[in-house]
Amino acid sequence: MFLEFFDLLFSYFTPFRVLGYLTFRSAFAALTTLLICFIFGGKIIEFLAKLKVGQSVRSDGPATHLVKTGTPTMGGFFIIISVLIAMLFWGDLQNTAIWITMGAFLAFGAIGFIDDYLKVTRHNSDGLPAWVKLAGQFAVATAAVMVIYFTGGEKITALYIPFLRDPVLDMGWLWIPFAVLLVVGESNAVNFSDGLDGLLAGLLIIVFLTLAVLTYITGRIDFSEYLGIPYIPEAGELTVFCLAAAGACVGFLWFNAHPAEVFMGDVGSLSLGGVIAVISLITKKEILILIIGGVFVLEIASVIIQVASYKLRKKRVFKMAPLHHHYELTGLSENKTVIRFWILGGLFAIIALSTLKIQ
Questions:
Q1: Which helix (H) or strand (E) holds 158?
Q2: Cα-based distances in Å from 287 to 21, 157, 161, 196, 329
Q3: How far apart are CA 67 and CA 63, in angstroms?
Q4: Which of 54, 91, 135, 145 has the fewest Cβ atoms within 10 Å of its own Cβ atom?
């Protein structure tokens, strides 16, 4: 929105031209969200506490988590708000990819808000019925995928595999259900990963920083040709969003680190998880996102394995699912579990970026 204003400044004072550079705008989008969270985070937490928007902890979870009952939740709100403000200042709102991304971001956030609201008003960990929540996710995912499908160009249905330079096949219309499942799966995988103080925020910082690199080089024809990855002209602008989201997660982590003063809630985890998948679709990194978010894949896989094993064999594979709770129950402290998962997330990010040269 402010890019037009910057254009006026250029005509009066040439050095102002730096305000229009993608790298400058991306860096300042991150700084904007970070400062908003730092400055207003404490006040928002106080406001949530006055509203008695407290977390209801699962009765079957680790006993050490019972002390967290009543901690303000729905902190994902100030992530969403700060990102929106940053995009109004630094984003190119004439970019189609930005509108698709922001639309999915807000829609998934709305589903998460309703789920969180029901939890806090009922004073238990049961929010939306599972089928209603899943139906909402499928509806939003389908809408986002259809827009990407009809606006993404001829390469949109091509499937690229990490370590291979050329697409392995053109999926045609089958790309649509594949993409929908990816978005729904990723949003739930991120949601399952939100269970320890600082765990999800730290992992998301790593993921969004990695996506910022990928969106930037995907939107530049020189870098994309050199690395042998698909060139998506409008993808570069998503760098602003990715760094804004990373900055917001850093700001949120300030308050969410152990012992957490606020929890993200589904309003944050669903919105951020869904938007990660949408960005991967726009940039043609559908398979690579499974490596970048490898910890999320492990988390949701542990849930699927646990449920399937119990239904089929009446036996549990893990002490508790998702996976982070399993390690807690083996005696690993919460802080050590979180840091080790962060390290694992960093390793997955390094592997994902290495695929750019090894192909």
A1: strand 158-159
A2: 30, 13, 6, 27, 32
A3: 8
A4: 135
Instruction: Write down the residue that tokens 């239904």 correspond to.
Output: 311
Q: How far is CA 326 from the centre of its chain?
A: 23
How many Å is the maximal CA-CA distance in the chain?
74
SS3 content of the chain, % helix, strand, coil (to 5): 70, 0, 25
Cα(350)–Cα(347) distance, integer angstroms: 5
CA angle 74, 45, 240 (to 5 degrees): 65
Beta-carbon-side half-sphere exposure of residue 169 (alpha carbons within 13 Å): 5
Alpha carbon 340 to chain centroid, angstroms: 20
Contact 244, 209 (CB under 8 A): no
Amino acid at 350: I
CA neighbor of 259 nearest in space, from 40, 61, 70: 70
Sequence letter at residue 221: I
**Pairing mode of beta strands 169-170, 158-159:** antiparallel
Q: Residue 262, SS3?
A: coil
| pTM passes above 0.90 | yes
Phi then psi for residue 158, to 5 deg, are -75, 140
Tokens of 262: 């606020």
Per-residue pLDDT of the chain (359 residues; tens, 9 = 90+): 566 666 666 666 566 566 678 999 999 999 999 999 999 998 988 888 887 766 665 555 565 565 566 688 888 988 999 999 999 999 998 999 999 999 999 999 999 999 988 888 877 667 788 899 999 999 999 999 999 999 988 889 999 998 887 788 899 999 999 999 999 999 999 999 998 999 999 999 999 999 999 999 999 999 999 888 999 999 999 999 999 999 999 999 999 998 889 999 999 999 999 999 999 999 999 999 999 999 999 999 999 999 999 998 888 999 988 999 999 888 899 999 999 999 999 999 999 999 988 76
In the beta sheet, which residues pair with residue 158? 170
Q: What is the rounded CA–CA span in Å between residue 267 and residue 276?
A: 15
